[in-house]
Amino acid sequence: MKINKQLFGLIMLTLFSIGLISCKTKEKIDKPEPQNPTPVENEYPTPEYAEESETPYTGLLESYKKDEWNGYWIWDKINAPDSYVAFRKEFEISKDITETVIDISAESKYFMWVNGILTVYDGSSKRGPSVNDSFYDYVKITNLKKGKNVIAFLTVYNGRSSDSSIDAGKAGLLFQMSVDDKVIKSDNTVKVKRLREYKNKSLLKGDYPNYPQSSMLGEWNVYFDAREATGNFFETSFDVSSWDNAVGVAKAGAKPFNRLYKNPAPTMKFNEIVKFENSSKYENIIFDKPTKIELELPLNRQFSTYFEIESEKEGEKILLYTDTYVVGTETNFKDTYITKKGVQKYENYPWRSGSKLYMEIPSGVKISYIGYRASGYDADITGSFESSNERLNILWDKAVNSLLINMRDTFMDTPDRERAPYMGDASNQIEMLLYSLDPNSYEIVKKTILTAIGWTKEGNILVSRAPSKSPHEIPVQSLAFIISVYNYYLYTGDRDTISKFYEIAANYLKNWELKDNGLIEIRDGSWLWTDWGEKIDVEVIQTAWYYYALNIIEKLSSDLNITKNDEFISQRKVTIEENFAKVYQKEDGGFRSGEENDDRANALAVLSGLAKKEDYESIRNILVNTKNASPFYEKYVLEALSIMGYYDEAVTRMLDRYEAMIDDSGTTLWELWSLDAAGTVTVNHGWTGGPLVIMSKYIAGIKPIEVNYEEYEIIPQFIYDKINASVDTNKGVIKMSYNKVEDGYEIKIKAIEGTGYLKLPKEFKDRTNFTGVMIEVIDDDYYVLSFEEGNYTITVS
């Protein structure tokens, strides 16, 4: 049958403009711009809703869910992966508003300006607390004024799932704000423009520079053509009268974005643009030949690039990439900027990471200014550790920087090739932030726990990576996460979150079967990963992790007054306690399932409580002489030595294993113990900073005894001439310092609300004087002084 082409085209254009059809993978670059549609309320696709049962534990997140939305999911008429779209909403109010709140969600990412001021940088989370759902941001606005106001968005749609994101299949932006008795919302009265200066494969076709990129990433390289730049659309005076009106994509709560849950984590902190350390070397020079320049940052960090240049010709290509562009066989981000003729300014908004930026500059280009904007998770370093051993200080500082570069909208294993939210990495990162960052950091832990709840699969499978296209169950990582979640609760007192998590953690442990020998069957999960490296004793390690997690659930059951799992926990603990040593303990000392000792396995035997004090000496010898653990497990080996009281051995091993990283000129800690010639190891990895916890928790000795520091102890190890440490809590900062003086020590404590206990060697008892009210407490192992909130000086002479 013959179809009139003009009629067919008119029908398709009409359907497209009202959002009834969309193009998911292709777009026509020669398509004429449609006329602006007349705004019509409620002209949106018929909503479809996901079944509540699609994720078994989503109901536990009900208190975070928002059902009442006036705004709609909107977008441009074209739904293309790797696209940038600008939105602008103008409105008037009758008075100045000093503070209000806007709720926002974008399928991938957004940047928001309010009256020309950048307010949100890299907002939204790459999908939600369950497989199908979405998070929304809760953002305070403080600069609305009487008369005309403008809210503008730059939104990014990745359009692909990755190790750290889930694609909804459609792009979208949703927002709403109540102000001055009206609701400002996303609907088809919002102005929209597809920013075609951001090129993708569909727009450039064969001219697209198909640089290889890690398949684990959801984000794309940027290709920006300044010749087509829209300009500063976020400025209040910018004219958008020629822009289209937004197209309705879905009702809030409907597919494909589904239910919306408040993101407990804050939006990103971002700084003003500053120059690189050596910017002046390259500024105000006209390059007479193609030149690669190297720009230095003060440390390895998350940042975006900004420059002001003048180009003699249009169409010249500038490339931007960092010193983490290539990691072994993986390549990460290489961005392209195409010049227009004359003066131009540009900020490359998507964040990158590294300690150096490389730019390939063509001839005929003059750089007037080159700088960067640092951004990252909104928490400050308020904890500290300083000793008379400078190498320990360097290691602590590198550990906290490694933590920060691997935190953003989720925890990450690494910020370059994967950005994947592994629970194993998060387990170490959670304990690190409890000793190094301010309480604002607790919110990313809360978000991680809520996501673990929502992503739990049928059969009570606690996955080890979410959000992700490949969530996986990695049993030892899921077990380690249970322990770290408990530590988060112990340090913060977040009873609400731990109550939600309890049921999942307890039920997860019921997935293990018992063997005839009374011990657990090793659970493969979807990935039987136990550690990198050699001589991994999978049987002992998984059994010890499992028993350790049983102990944690037993504590939580008591704290939460839950008794229904008591019989299961008791029976499992008894059978493992009765048979662990029978099966795994050897006459020459330690625990193993095969012929060779494993430092990881024996460390976990200590941490779990399966090893007895009479086993400590033989385990000490194993941990001193066996060094197979990866940096992930090294934290647990060092912790086991500390718990057994072998502090000198712990520090000696720590300095030995981390020697190359301490000596390296970089500011982060590596994935593995060496940077091999092929460069297959990332130079910044989330799991490697365990020594930070060891120094603050065991060498400075600051740790809670009761939930939320209702009671806490300080047990400093007097192995250096001085230690100065602090830990930030919900109740304020605890500080402890000691300095070696003639014939003794001067100890200073700043105490928070609650009861603290200073535990000193027993031989200090008759040599100690103190200021303030401190009470001696009878103890078999230490000379103990209890104290309340205040400042204290203790002199040992």
From TrEMBL:
Domain Alpha-L-rhamnosidase six-hairpin glycosidase: 382-698
Pfam families to which the protein is assigned, alphabetical: Bac_rhamnosid6H
Signal peptide segment: none
InterPro entries associated with the record: 6-hairpin_glycosidase_sf, 6hp_glycosidase-like_sf, Bac_rhamnosid6H
Chain intervals for the UniProt region annotation (Disordered): 29-54
PROSITE patterns for the chain: PROKAR_LIPOPROTEIN
SUPFAM superfamilies xrefs: Six-hairpin glycosidases
GO BP term, example: carbohydrate metabolic process
PANTHER family: B, PUTATIVE (AFU_ORTHOLOGUE AFUA_7G05040)-RELATED, C, PUTATIVE (AFU_ORTHOLOGUE AFUA_3G02880)-RELATED
Protein name as catalogued: Bacterial alpha-L-rhamnosidase
Lineage summary: Bacteria, Bacillati, Mycoplasmatota, Mollicutes, Acholeplasmatales
